[in-house]
Design brief:
This protein is mostly helical. It has helices at 2-13, 26-40, 58-67, 74-85, 122-132, 144-154, 169-183, 193-197, 233-243, 254-266; strands at residues 111-113, 118-120, 204-205, 208-209, 222-224, 229-231, 276-278. The protein has ten helices and seven strands. The strands form three sheets. It has a three-stranded mixed sheet. Strands 1-2 form a two-stranded antiparallel ribbon. Strands 3-4 form a two-stranded antiparallel ribbon.
């Protein structure tokens, strides 16, 4: 534990916010982020960033590719499809709540709801669909909701993220809140999300190779070896907060939804590859 802390503190001492990421509008931010990672990893093609650490390390990529013949999330995706297609007690299904019957839409989430003035993630929409049809909501970090989300993501495989930030004060505020969260230091280790995934991708913390921020939402839900199961992006957010000794927020809290909004906008143009596997 002490060794890990020493390494983390050493990394933190070397951190300087890249000036390229200090831009103002969402699109300026995104272009600056793409250019920053392009310069940092000139040998990594743009679309390869969705593969996280496997785009940076050949040995890890080789091990990961050997798993892809029988990915450990296959059964969960099949279960997710079955649940997605099974009618609620009122006879309707999830398809009744989503555009195009919920097929091939993952790349449009999260989005800003102009009527409710809030960010809607896919998992939140799944639960609101359940509640609108008289069903109890599911727990947000893992289990059934991760399986349903994974199935829906699988129907969008290869489609490019196309997150919109409307030119409307509430939408811009949500985006900026997410951006501020990403760059804000917290916890006993005084780390931000950017500390690891903007300033130190490609570096090691103990046995973990830090992945770049660009493309991270593309592969969720993920099956992590550490978890032994599928988990949602907000489960990962909470885990990162724990890692820096910060109090994690509830999944689907306003803060985490805004964070997902910002982070996914940064990945616009990259393809959906979820579900995926990670260490």
């Amino acid at each position: 534990m002490l060794k890990a802390k020493v390494i983390l503190v050493a990394l933190g001492a070397a951190m300087v916010l890249p000036q390229a990421l200090a831009a103002s509008s969402p699109e300026e931010d995104r272009k600056a982020a793409v250019e920053y990672f392009k310069q940092r990893f000139p040998d990594v093609p743009f679309k390869e960033f969705v593969n996280g650490q496997y785009a940076l390390d050949e040995d890890r990529r080789s091990q990961w590719e050997s798993l892809q013949d029988f990915p450990p999330y296959e059964f969960a995706v099949a279960e997710g499809q079955e649940m997605f297609e099974t009618p609620f007690a009122n006879g309707k299904t999830y398809a009744s709540c989503f555009e195009n019957g919920g097929i091939g839409i993952r790349q449009n989430y999260p989005y800003f709801d102009m009527e409710k003035k809030e960010v809607i993630t896919l998992e939140l929409a799944i639960n609101r669909c359940r509640e609108a049809n008289g069903e109890k909501p599911l727990r947000y970090k893992k289990g059934d909701i991760a399986s349903i989300s994974a199935y829906m993501a699988s129907t969008s495989e290869g489609k490019a993220f196309d997150i919109k930030v409307p030119d409307e004060p509430a939408a811009m505020a949500a985006y900026k809140d997410g951006k501020e969260f990403y760059y804000s230091r917290r916890g006993q280790l005084n780390f931000s999300c950017a500390s690891c995934h903007v300033q130190n991708p490609g570096n090691w913390i103990r046995a973990d190779l830090l992945s770049p921020a660009l493309g991270q939402p593309s592969n969720f839900p993920v099956h992590r070896s550490k978890w032994g199961e599928l988990g949602t992006l907000h489960r990962r957010f909470a885990g990162c907060n724990n890692n820096v000794r910060a109090e994690p927020l509830p999944p689907q809290s306003l803060e985490y939804r805004n964070l997902e909004y910002f982070l996914t906008y940064m990945s616009n143009g990259l393809p959906v590859v979820g579900p995926a596997t990670r260490p």
